[in-house]
Amino acid sequence: MSDRLERSSVPQHVISAEAAAQAVAAAVAHAGTLGVRINAAVVDGGGTLAAFLRMPGAFLHSVEIAIDKAYTAASFGFPTAQWPAVFGSDELLRIGLSQRPRLVVIGGGLPIHLKGPDGSALIGGIGVSGASAEQDEACALAGLRAIGLTS
């Protein structure tokens, strides 16, 4: 690699295909213990779908919602359940942002942060949809824990 190219590139961490698959599988397994049917998605740091798993009987509309929850968490770096606090009493902000395509402002999306000696790197997001927001988030957290991470 040329010296010029090295100076103009930035190293980055990405979630592996194996870790993404393990996370959605763990989210689905946790949903089974709760007796709910979900869709689970993992996106990489750029918002591209890395893994997806749908339980038989999970709501069809929840497919895209799960993917968009993961995308939203990866885009902003915080759980989708935190959006109400971000909006606060700013009604115009709530209305304006909640109408943006792919932005989901309900619980069930968690960022995936890789923690290392140099700090934390945002490498993606996991999103779950199909149950209550609290159950969705619990399933997403189970996915993170399965790959050795926490929210």
TrEMBL record:
Alphabetized Pfam families for the sequence: HbpS-like
Superkingdom as given in the UniProt entry: Bacteria
InterPro entries cross-referenced by the UniProt entry: GlcG_carb_metab_protein, PduO/GlcC-like, PduO/GlcC-like_sf
Identification of the protein by name: Cobalamin adenosyltransferase
Organism: Leptothrix cholodnii (strain ATCC 51168 / LMG 8142 / SP-6)
Lineage: Bacteria, Pseudomonadati, Pseudomonadota, Betaproteobacteria, Burkholderiales
